[in-house]
Write a sequence for this structure.
């Protein structure tokens, strides 16, 4: 029998997102690494592409076992110097906020590819507009809280990098799993999905929490994860 020959026809990338237990920024990037779409080494170079110097922001990628299966975990560490570089003090004694405009500026002026910038800026725009709607303010006034930390900003940029690497011609998605119960955020206790997530999930088919997840209070899909999904327009 002759050895099968590779097809000479051009192929297009089709991305399918199966929301087994929700979606979050770090989960999206970890899945892309695990699937071989991007390498850990590529992802670890992203802080340098954003202009962070002297290892003030570091990304580690590791293997772990979850539900008896091998999985990939992405973790971000940063020094106070990185926070001071980006933050603007909004009157809080113990917390600095990072504005939408500052993050968008950082992505725009980075050394990322044009497509990666486009996706990352679209994701942060969707996050910004959801926060603006929640607080009834203009986009230019938005100063992020939960999604304003260095790790969440990197989640946005890593996702943009991964999507550009895939460059999908079509995107499909299973229904979103939002979670249930109550979540504590800096504004207080809110039902799941909290306000920004509720806005970002508008128009998305939603599935219940899987029966195997027993926690009474669990947020399965984060605002960053939902903004990634929304930017992909599945």
């Amino acid at each position: 029998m002759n050895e099968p020959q590779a097809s000479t026809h051009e192929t297009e990338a089709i991305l399918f997102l199966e929301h087994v237990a929700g979606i979050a920024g770090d989960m999206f990037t970890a899945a892309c690494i695990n699937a071989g779409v991007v390498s850990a080494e590529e992802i670890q170079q992203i802080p340098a592409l954003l202009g962070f110097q002297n290892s003030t922001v570091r990304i580690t990628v590791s293997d772990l076992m979850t539900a008896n299966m091998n999985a990939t975990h992405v973790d971000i560490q940063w020094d106070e110097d990185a926070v001071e570089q980006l933050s603007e003090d909004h009157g809080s004694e113990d917390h600095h906020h990072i504005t939408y405009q500052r993050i968008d500026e950082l992505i725009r002026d980075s050394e990322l590819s044009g497509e990666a910038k486009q996706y990352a800026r679209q994701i942060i725009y969707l996050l910004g507009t959801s926060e603006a709607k929640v607080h009834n303010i203009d986009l230019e006034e938005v100063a992020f809280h939960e999604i304003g930390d260095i790790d969440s900003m990197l989640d946005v940029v890593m996702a943009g990098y991964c999507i550009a690497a895939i460059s999908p011609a079509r995107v499909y998605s299973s229904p979103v799993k939002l979670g249930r119960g109550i979540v504590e955020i800096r504004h207080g206790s809110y039902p799941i999905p909290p306000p920004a997530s509720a806005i970002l999930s508008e128009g998305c088919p939603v599935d219940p929490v899987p029966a195997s997840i027993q926690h009474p209070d669990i947020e399965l899909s984060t605002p960053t994860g939902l903004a990634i999904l929304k930017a992909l327009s599945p």
Observations:
- Residues 14 and 170 are 5 Å apart (CA to CA).
- The first strand starts at residue 14 and ends at 17.
- Confidence is low (pLDDT under 50) at residues 89-94.
